[in-house]
């Protein structure tokens, strides 16, 4: 599939995933309602002893599932009356879910009971993890509010980047909280609590919240509005790291709440134990004061006894109030009260015995009283041992929870740190790879641009060469006939001038001057005709070994160099010979020397040098003048046929130089600056070994 269709395909997949999650929410919510209707525990709580999903929670899942399904349905994306109806229904269901969630949160915050918890079904008091019968947990209510808000934004008419980003943030928060809730089941020792002492929600509720959070994210995603710089793996790693951090925070919160609750239990048990010990002391003192009264008959002992009994009843009343919500401790106190009542009846009988004259039984009653006190002490010892055992168990559990919390926090922190480091390294690697790719693209672009420029130059050179060949082809069509037709009359004219100079030896100065002018112009015309023929009819060279010094000397003898031009030669005697066609290279040098002389009409210096490159087996001959020089534009057209910088000429001299040089396996180069002269270099193969 082409890249332009990829966003459409991805959008269809995301919508299908959102619709599947919505269907799961509706199905699970319906099954839970069936469980409440027919009292099927497995449908309500999945496993025995687990928290059950409340009926109003199941109803909200059904409503939010329908709203999400209506939003993710393909018809909802069409601009039609049906899509408008879908959106309105979705918003209505969102509104219901958000309202139920807000009312439930209001109950938790205000402490009121609005009567909405058990509209559908009645739940008995004391259900597992349910402080308020029929009421969803505070976190479930919060997640419903966040989901409703996120989905409300999604179905809105205004969908820009920031609106959709807000929807995705709310949905991501729902997902992370739900995942942390699921992880809470991994540490059952911390009790049925999550954040701030709130009770944990049902497992299937947490799973549905996680699915719906991801589904709303998928439903909110739009390729043309939201784009991630991170890859999927890096994004998933950061999400996992955030989930671990939330789980750590949840564990700390749960541990702190559990420890606070346990410390309260320990403190309460210690206070109850202290009060029991105090009651035991009061009863012991009451028995002692009773014996003192019986033995001495002093009323002070009787008053002390009555005071002990009063303190006993006072402390017992306070203890009953303290343990009013602890059935186990109430049973222990009932046992103490039973023994204490028996002790009081014995005490009264023991006090009244001497007065009724039953002294014979006094000793037996005293022994019986000791047995009562022993029984009471045994009861107190048993209760004290039970409390101390409970306190030890609570302290051991506290230490275990502290160790577990420390391990969880340390392991979770290291895990999240490792996840973030891996994600950061991967992100840096991706950024480096992208930078390297961009640098490579820049290099490729530069290379491509260079190649384009080179190709452009090649095309320009080819075009220029084509134009040059076309010009030469045109010249070739007329060169033979024109050259022949020009040379014949020029030969006749040259003979005529020679004849006139012979027959008129005593002619006046003016006549001789004009005859010389005619002779010079005939020579120029013959040279033009020769250039024309050489430019279009280059003969194959006949290479042979030619000495450079002799070749240049012969050329200079045949060139007309005025006295105003000084010729400087730099021809080393150690140079190898050239392997060229002597006549053709003679023509090349003659044209270059003539051009150099003509470039200095006011006179100047003409330098001729030869330099050998033994490695390349070539010899470069340069002809440098101190004339007017040329512009860059003139240099660009220098070797084109019919182009000339001189007032006279047809622009074929340098064409001949180029053709003859290349025919002999050499090359021609030129350097020139305006007002500073020009340097023509001819590089030819040497005959050296």
Structural topology:
Blueprint: H1 6-38, H2 41-45, H3 55-72, H4 81-110, H5 138-154, H6 161-184, H7 203-220, H8 232-296, H9 299-322, H10 327-352, H11 362-503, H12 509-536, E1 544-546, H13 548-558, E2 565-570, E3 578-580, H14 582-598, E4 604-613, E5 618-625, H15 632-636, H16 653-663, E6 667-673, E7 677-685
Parallel strand pairs: 2-4
Antiparallel strand pairs: 1-3, 4-5, 5-7, 6-7
Concise structural overview:
The chain is α+β, with helices and mostly antiparallel strands.
Q: How would you portray this structure in words?
A:
The chain is an alpha+beta fold and 689 residues long. It is built from 16 helices and seven strands. The strands form two sheets. Strands 2-4-5-7-6 form a five-stranded mixed β-sheet, covered by helices on one side. Strand 4 and strand 5 form a beta hairpin. Helix 5 runs parallel beside helix 7.
N→C terminal distance: 66 Å
Strand order of the largest sheet: 2-4-5-7-6
For the largest beta-sheet, the strand count, sense and barrel status come to: 5 strands, mixed
Uncertain segments are 1-8
SS summary, helix count: 16
Order of helices and strands: HHHHHHHHHHHHEHEEHEEHHEE
User: In angstroms, what is the radius of gyration?
Assistant: 58 Å
- State the oligomer: single chain
Strand tally is 7
**Shape designation:** rod-shaped
**Beta-strand content bin:** 5-15%
Give the structural class: alpha+beta
Overall pLDDT metric: 76
**Overall helicity:** 55-70%
């Amino acid at each position: 599939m082409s890249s332009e269709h990829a966003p459409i395909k991805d959008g269809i997949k995301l919508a299908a995933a959102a619709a599947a999650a919505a269907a799961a929410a509706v199905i699970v919510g319906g099954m839970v309602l069936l469980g409440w209707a027919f009292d099927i525990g497995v449908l309500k709580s999945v496993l025995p002893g687990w928290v059950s999903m409340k009926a109003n929670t199941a109803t909200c899942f059904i409503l939010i599932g329908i709203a999400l399904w209506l939003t993710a349905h393909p018809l909802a994306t069409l601009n039609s009356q049906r899509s408008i109806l879908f959106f309105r229904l979705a918003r209505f269901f969102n509104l219901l879910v958000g309202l139920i969630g807000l009312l439930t949160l209001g109950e938790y915050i205000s402490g009121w009971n609005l009567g909405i918890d058990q509209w559908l079904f009645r739940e008995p008091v004391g259900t597992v993890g349910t402080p308020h019968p029929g009421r969803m947990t505070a976190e479930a209510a919060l997640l419903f509010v966040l989901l409703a808000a996120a989905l409300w934004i999604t179905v809105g008419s205004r969908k820009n980047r920031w609106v959709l980003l807000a929807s995705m943030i709310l949905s991501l928060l729902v997902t992370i909280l739900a995942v942390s809730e699921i992880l809470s089941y991994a540490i059952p020792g911390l009790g049925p609590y999550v954040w701030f002492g709130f009770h944990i929600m049902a497992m299937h509720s947490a799973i549905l919240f996680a699915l719906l959070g991801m589904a709303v994210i998928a439903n909110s995603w739009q390729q043309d509005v939201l784009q991630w710089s991170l890859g999927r793996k890096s994004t998933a790693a950061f999400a996992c790291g955030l989930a671990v951090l939330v789980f750590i925070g949840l564990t700390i919160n749960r541990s702190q709440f559990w420890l606070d609750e346990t410390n309260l239990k320990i403190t309460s048990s210690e206070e109850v134990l202290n009060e029991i010990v105090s009651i035991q002391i009061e009863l012991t003192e009451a028995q002692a004061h009773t014996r003192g009264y019986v033995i001495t008959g002093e009323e002070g002992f009787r008053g002390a006894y009555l005071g002990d009994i009063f303190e006993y009843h006072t402390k017992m009343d306070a203890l009953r109030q303290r343990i009013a919500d602890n059935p186990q401790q109430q049973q222990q106190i009932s046992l103490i009260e039973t023994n204490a009542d028996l002790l009081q009846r014995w005490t009264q009988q023991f006090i009244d015995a001497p007065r009724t004259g039953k002294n014979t039984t006094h000793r037996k009653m005293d022994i019986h009283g000791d047995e009562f006190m022993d029984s009471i002490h045994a009861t107190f010892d048993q209760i004290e041992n039970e409390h101390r055992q409970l306190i030890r168990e609570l302290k051991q559990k506290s230490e275990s929870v502290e160790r577990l919390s420390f391990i969880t926090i340390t392991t979770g922190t290291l895990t999240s740190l490792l996840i973030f480091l891996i994600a950061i390294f991967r992100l840096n690697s991706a950024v480096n790879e992208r930078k390297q790719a961009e640098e490579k693209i820049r290099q490729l672009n530069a290379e491509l641009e260079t190649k384009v420029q080179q190709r452009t130059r090649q095309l320009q050179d080819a075009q220029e060469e084509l134009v040059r060949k076309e010009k030469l082809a045109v010249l070739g069509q007329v060169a033979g006939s024109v050259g022949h037709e020009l040379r014949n009359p020029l030969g006749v004219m040259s003979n005529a001038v020679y004849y006139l100079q012979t027959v008129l030896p005593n002619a006046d100065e003016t006549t001789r001057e004009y005859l010389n002018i005619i002779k010079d112009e005939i020579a120029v015309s013959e040279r033009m005709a020769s250039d024309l023929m050489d430019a279009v009819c280059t003969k194959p060279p006949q290479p042979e070994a030619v000495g450079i010094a002799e070749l240049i000397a012969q050329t200079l003898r045949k060139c007309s160099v005025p006295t105003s031009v000084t010729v400087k030669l730099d021809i080393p005697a150690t140079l190898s010979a050239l392997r060229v066609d002597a006549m053709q290279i003679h023509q090349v040098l003659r044209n270059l020397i003539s051009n150099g002389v003509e470039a200095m009409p006011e006179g100047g210096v003409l330098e001729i040098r030869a330099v050998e490159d033994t490695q390349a087996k070539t010899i470069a001959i340069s002809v440098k003048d101190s004339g007017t020089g040329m512009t860059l534009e003139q240099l660009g057209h220098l070797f084109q046929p019919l182009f000339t910088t001189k007032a006279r000429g047809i622009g074929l001299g340098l064409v001949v130089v180029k053709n003859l040089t290349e025919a002999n396996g050499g090359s021609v180069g030129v350097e020139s600056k305006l007002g500073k002269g020009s340097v023509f270099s001819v590089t030819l193969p040497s005959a050296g070994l």
